[in-house]
């Protein structure tokens, strides 16, 4: 792998990855709507709106692999999700095809399966149950990744991220957390592992409370270095500051399941 594009480079995860990725991919191009304030002289940046195919093609041209962090990362109006996450994901894969990019890593989200109740243990072969329009857009991105792998030979890895952060921020994140360095390990599998065709894994560190069966990640050689439970005290201290929401606590997607909720609790997520 020579040249890698990181979209969404100005976001929370992007800023963390800018520090960690150059050790493995020194030839890194960054893209986002606007450049990071602290862009370094050695960093290459190409501004691109994901909703504009020509701009995305300009960002993609000449790279071998893409880590596609760009897009809206929580619930928004349909018009916004449509532009950045639906049209944006399609444009990204289409630009990759046109420019002979070999691999795309697509960070999906546990919100694609957010309406499953927390007593379930999910593999990657379950039907999607999105928590929100955001979760729906991630399910769409996973499907685009499958289409471009099967129809056009792109190698794609979708990572259903729980929560990338320095520490697990509350009780729910003890199930969902992935450290930035473990996330980089999964990204490297996506960009380098010879067996990747279209693959789907969960983006989690080694978490005792995980709701997911991440067998495929381990088959691909994933060996997480971090464990959410090691930060239990911090997470529970943060949790104590929050007001409990019984509806959010019932589903894997948490709070995003409650946004605009008008469902039937007897039936949701069953
Ligand atoms: N943070 C997490 O724990 C987490 C969990 C699950 C999934 N993810 C996914 O990982 C990715 C990165 O997450 P994040 O927390 O850094 O999100 P973020 O919101 O901090 O960053 C996303 C970046 O995408 C850019 N963006 C939005 N719309 C765009 C558009 N139309 N064109 C170009 N750029 C656009 C934004 O400017 C922003 O810098 C997202 O796709 C998110 O859905 C993150």
List the defining traits of the structure above.
270 residues; Rossmann fold; two-stranded parallel sheet; binds nicotinamide-adenine-dinucleotide
Concise description?
The chain starts with a strand and ends in a 12-residue tail after the last helix. With 270 residues, it is α/β, with parallel strands linked by helices. It contains 10 helices and 9 strands.
Describe this structure as you would to a colleague:
The chain is globular and about 50 Å long. It is built from ten helices and nine strands. Strand 4, helix 3 and strand 5 form a beta-alpha-beta unit. The chain starts with a strand and ends in a 12-residue tail after the last helix. Helix 2 crosses helix 3 and helix 3 packs parallel to helix 4. The protein has a single domain, classed as NAD(P)-binding Rossmann-like Domain (Rossmann fold, 3-Layer(aba) Sandwich), CATH 3.40.50. The longest helix has 21 residues. The strands form two sheets. The protein has a seven-stranded parallel β-sheet with strand order 3-2-1-4-5-6-9, with helices on both faces. The chain has a two-stranded parallel sheet with strand order 7-8. The chain is α/β, with parallel strands linked by helices. The protein binds nicotinamide-adenine-dinucleotide. The site of nicotinamide-adenine-dinucleotide (NAD) has 24 residues, from helix 1, helix 3, strand 5 and strand 7.
């Amino acid at each position: 792998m020579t040249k890698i594009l990181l979209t969404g480079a100005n976001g929370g995860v992007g800023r963390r990855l800018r520090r960690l990725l150059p050790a493995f991919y020194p030839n890194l191009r960054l893209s986002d709507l606007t450049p990071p304030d602290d862009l370094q002289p050695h960093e290459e940046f190409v501004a691109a709106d994901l909703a504009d195919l020509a701009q995305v093609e300009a960002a993609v041209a000449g790279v071998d692999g893409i880590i596609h962090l760009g897009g809206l990362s929580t619930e928004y109006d349909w018009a916004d999700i449509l532009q950045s996450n639906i049209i944006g994901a399609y444009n990204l894969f289409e630009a990759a095809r046109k420019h002979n990019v070999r691999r795309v890593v697509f960070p999906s989200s546990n919100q694609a399966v957010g309406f499953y109740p927390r007593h379930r243990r999910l593999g990657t072969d379950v039907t999607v149950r999105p928590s929100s329009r955001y979760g729906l857009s991630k399910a769409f991105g996973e499907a685009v990744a499958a289409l471009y792998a099967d129809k056009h030979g792109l190698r794609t890895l979708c990572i259903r991220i729980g929560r990338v952060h320095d520490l697990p921020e509350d009780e729910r994140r003890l199930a969902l957390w992935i450290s930035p360095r473990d996330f980089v390990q999964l990204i490297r599998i996506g960009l380098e592992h010879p067996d990747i065709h279209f693959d789907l894994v969960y983006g989690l560190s080694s978490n005792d409370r995980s709701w997911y069966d991440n067998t495929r990640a381990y088959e691909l050689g994933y060996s997480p270095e971090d464990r959410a439970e090691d930060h239990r005290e911090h997470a529970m201290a943060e949790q104590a500051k929050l007001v409990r929401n019984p509806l959010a606590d019932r589903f894997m997607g948490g709070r995003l399941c409650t946004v605009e909720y008008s469902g039937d609790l007897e039936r949701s997520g069953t």
